[in-house]
TrEMBL record, chain A:
Keywords: Phosphoprotein. This is Two-component system chemotaxis response regulator CheY. It comes from Pseudosporangium ferrugineum. The keyword Phosphoprotein applies. PANTHER family: CHEMOTAXIS TWO-COMPONENT RESPONSE REGULATOR (PTHR44591:SF25), STRESS RESPONSE REGULATOR PROTEIN 1 (PTHR44591). It comes from the Bacteria.
Automatic annotation (TrEMBL), chain B:
Its main location: membrane. This is Chemotaxis protein CheA. Keywords: Chemotaxis, Kinase, Nucleotide-binding, Phosphoprotein, Transferase, Two-component regulatory system. The modification Phosphohistidine is found at H50. The lineage of its organism: Bacteria, Bacillati, Actinomycetota, Actinomycetes, Micromonosporales. GO terms for molecular function: phosphorelay sensor kinase activity. One of its GO terms (biological process) is chemotaxis. Gene3D superfamilies: Histidine kinase-like ATPase, C-terminal domain, HPT domain, SH3 Domains. The keyword Phosphoprotein applies.
Length: 122, 712
């Protein structure tokens, strides 16, 4: 069975393009519009990898990652943070919260695919 | 539904979303104008720009990414409190929001990249934001997934000691090994389980295993290193060339260009990545601080930490040593104050004079005397060589000029510099720079045609401008040549007649016509451009060149280009001259101007001209010119000088022979004097004036002209 990835970003187009790319590579994808929405989606699903933006309304990415890590089922799930070059401090915060992988924005779909492929197979 | 359809749909989503964001941006900016300190608004505005940038990157919209990046950077510094909101800032940012909006609407219409006008508008807007940008990062480009070229496959040994927390962080070691298989062939994987504790002490969440593997891959080392970027910090990852490949690296390093830094050699050979080098330098520094001793050589650290095998480091060290050896042989230089050098030259000048004075007294004979002469000559040559600098630095400065002017004029020109190592007096180099600049601009402006016109004439769209320098018979020659349209004889002649420079019915040779461009007030450009001035150019160039005792000539072929050739003495400090006497006064004529010397024919003569082997030779009586009292000598001589292809005789009383002498400039009081370029002290202690042949001849023919007209 294909592995499931959760993409969390407040931009619909980012969610859409990342989904297209990941589905094309053979993953299943579900999407969350912000941290709060994503946290709700974690329950009752088996998610193998999480991709999350940092700047989001309602609940930002770093809080979301910290909350997710508190759930037993997501203690060791690989998490990719979408950071920017100008936000080195955010990257550090995200790593401390438990997201050890990252992709720097702006990125192209292939870059996202190779980051995901390093962590899990489809 | 195909992926293409999906992407089109995603792009539509982006357009809708972007319209929203642009609106947020605009409203936010307007709000900031009223309430500059509203933190929530600043946040909204920043996030709008940030999201726009991120999403544009996803669709590969480079222009939008670069543009919004700058806007985001400015807004970022507002958010960080480094920059205050001002009316100026808001007025600079608002049109940026409009520009983004225009781009988005273009996108909705199916245009992915801006047209030329929009690109220009974008650039202008960004220029307006420049004052608000700190030293932060400038434009950033969308990173493209690197396509693996057909690089030769290399064999690597990988030693992977993952951190104990690896699994807890969601990282699966086996997953990285699997991913390695996508960039090369993995073989001989072995597991090192020596770290594994007894079963009862084992923590199932901790990673105890280490791996060794061999990878055959055409990917550069950086790419292999990037596989492990997420675990790099906590793990010990070593990627070294396999043993049987060491020779290849050593050979590559031997063949590399010179470098005096071991690190640079290792990085460009591909054996070490920049990250690894940074790490090693960090270790080096830490060790030095801790032990308080001199830092351990970087090569030792690289070997000790298993980053590179010793043979490769040794090869790099060898390369470095060779570079340093050749360099120390080549140029051991010391810098000295130019004033001291001038003082030395001055003294050598005095020495030359004193020596010619002793020469006068001791007579020509004597072996000791000739030995002293030889030595003084050598000292003089060496002293002058001290002032010599290669002209290349000055010529290379024009690269920028050519680039800028081309942009301004919309022309494509490549600059070819040759002979940059030809040396000349530093003082001359400085003074020739401006005339050269003018010639270069002139070639670009009037000589080389616009690309379209060039193509019409069957030429390459890109023009060529050549700067060439070489030594020729004790002079230095500098050429500025282009492959442009060449000089237009008819146009020049018409203009010259119009300006009254020549008579309408004058019959002129091609060379004479071309020389007209150096006449004062002459310009053929029908539209005056901001570049090559308003017709004050070429005559000023010629005046500057002749002021340096040089000459200038033009060579041109219609439709194929023009070359302007400047000929200058190597130095201004010393002159080879011919000493002549008129009554009690002595004058020096620069020797390179003298073509021959004849006796002034006795008997009746035309007014100021004589018959020289069937040709008319105008002459100047120096006695008359300088109002020297006394009767002329019974037998006078004519020193014939040549200037710009025209020969003129100088009538003198006595010929006193060749001499080499140091030029002493005349005081400021005489700076306006046009026929005298300097003075010198003779061995006898007397003063001789050095004649400036160019103006002397030109002034004279002008005076003759005036007189002839008056007479008519």
């Amino acid at each position: 069975m294909a592995k499931t990835i959760l993409i969390v970003d407040d931009s619909a187009s980012v969610r859409q393009v990342v989904s297209i790319a990941l589905k094309g590579a053979g993953y299943d994808v579900i999407a969350g519009v912000d941290g709060k929405d994503a946290l709700a989606k974690l329950n009752g699903q088996r998610i193998h990898l999480i991709i999350s933006d940092v700047n989001m309304p309602n609940m930002d990415g770093i809080t979301f990652v910290a909350e997710a890590r508190k759930l037993p089922a997501y203690k060791f799930t690989p998490i990719i943070m979408l950071t920017t070059e100008s936000q080195e401090d955010k990257k550090r915060q995200a790593q401390a919260a438990g997201a050890k992988a990252w992709v720097t924005k702006p990125f192209q779909p292939e870059q996202m695919l190779s980051a995901v492929a390093k962590l899990i197979a489809p | 539904m195909s992926t293409d359809d999906d992407m089109r749909e995603a792009l539509d989503t982006f357009v809708t979303e972007a319209r929203d964001l642009v609106q947020q941006l605009e409203e936010g900016l307007l709000d900031l104008e009223v309430r500059p300190a509203a933190a929530d608004t600043v946040n909204t505005v920043f996030r709008a720009a940030h999201t726009l940038k991120g999403s544009s990157g996803l669709f590969g919209l480079r222009h939008l990414v670069q543009f919004t990046h700058v806007v985001e950077t400015v807004l970022g510094s507002v958010r960080e409190g480094d920059l205050e909101v001002s009316p100026g800032l808001v007025s600079a940012l608002l049109p940026c929001a409009d520009h983004i909006g225009t781009m988005i609407e273009g996108l909705a219409g199916g245009r992915l990249e801006p047209d030329a006008a929009q690109a220009a508008e974008g650039a202008a807007l960004l220029a307006g934001l420049e004052p608000y940008l700190g030293d932060g990062p400038g434009a950033t480009a969308v990173r493209h997934a690197e396509d693996a070229g057909a690089a030769p496959e290399r064999s690597w040994r990988l030693s992977l000691r993952f951190g104990a927390d690896c699994l807890r962080n969601g990282m699966d070691p086996l997953s990285f090994l699997r991913y390695l298989g996508s960039i090369g062939t993995v073989s001989r994987v072995s597991v090192d389980d020596s770290g594994l504790p007894a079963a009862e002490q084992m923590d199932p969440e901790t990673c105890y295993l280490a791996f060794e593997a061999e990878l055959l891959s055409g990917a550069p080392k950086e790419e292999i290193e990037a596989v492990f970027e997420f675990v790099r910090e906590d793990s010990d990852i070593r990627i070294v060339p396999a043993e049987h490949q060491l020779d290849a690296y050593v050979r590559a390093i031997r063949a590399m260009p010179e470098s005096d830094r071991v690190g640079d050699v290792l990085i460009s050979s591909g054996a070490v990545t920049e990250l690894e080098m940074a790490e090693a330098l960090h270790i080096q520094q830490e060790q030095a601080v801790r032990s308080g001793t001199r830092p351990v050589p970087i090569g030792e650290i690289l070997v000790e930490h298993g980053i590179v095998p010793r043979p490769i480091v040794d090869a790099a060290l060898n390369r470095q040593r060779k570079t340093i050896e050749t360099r120390s042989q080549d140029t051991q230089t010391i810098r000295i104050d130019a004033a001291r050098l001038d003082r030395l030259i001055d003294l050598v000048g005095e020495l030359v004079i004193a020596q010619s004075s002793t020469g006068l007294r001791a007579g020509a004979g004597g072996e000791a005397q000739s030995e002293v002469m030889r030595l003084v000559d050598e000292v003089r040559h060496s002293a002058l060589a001290l002032r010599m600098v290669p002209i290349g630095t000055t010529l290379r400065r024009f690269e920028r000029v050519v680039r800028d002017v081309c942009v301004e004029l919309g022309k494509e020109v490549s600059l070819v510099i040759t002979g940059g190592d030809a040396e000349m007096d530093k003082a001359l180099v400085e003074r020739i720079s401006d005339p050269l600049l003018h010639l270069v601009r002139n070639s670009l402006d009037h000589g080389i045609e616009a690309p379209a016109e060039r193509r019409r004439h069957g030429k390459a769209a890109q023009g060529t401008l050549r700067l060439n320098a070489y030594h020729d018979a004790g002079n230095i020659v500098i050429e500025v040549g282009d492959d442009g349209r060449g000089l237009d004889r008819e146009k020049i002649l018409a203009k010259a007649v119009e300006r009254g420079v020549v008579d309408a019915d004058a019959v002129l040779t091609d060379a004479e016509v071309h020389d007209l461009i150096f006449e004062p007030g002459f310009s053929t450009a029908s539209t005056v451009s901001s570049l090559s001035g308003r017709g004050v150019g070429m005559d000023v160039v010629r005046r500057n060149v002749t002021g340096l005792r040089g000459s200038i000539e033009v060579e041109t072929t219609r439709g194929a280009g023009t070359t302007i050739r400047i000929r200058l003495p190597l130095t201004l400090a010393i002159i080879d001259g011919f000493l002549v006497g008129v009554g009690p006064s002595s004058f020096i004529v620069p020797l390179d101007r003298v073509t021959e010397i004849v006796e002034l024919p006795s008997g009746p003569l035309g007014r100021d001209c004589m018959n020289l082997r069937g040709e008319v030779l105008p002459f100047i009586r120096l006695r008359d010119l300088f109002d020297i009292p006394g009767e002329p000598a019974r037998r006078q001589s004519v020193v014939i000088v040549e200037q710009s292809g025209q020969r003129t005789g100088l009538v003198v009383d006595a010929l006193l022979g060749e001499l080499q002498t140091v030029i002493k400039p005349l005081g400021v009081l005489f700076s306006g004097l046009s026929c005298i370029s300097g003075s010198t002290i003779l061995g006898s202690g007397e003063i001789a004036l050095i004649l400036d042949v160019g103006p002397l001849v030109a002034d004279h023919s002008e005076r003759e002209h005036v007189r002839a007209r008056r007479a008519a």
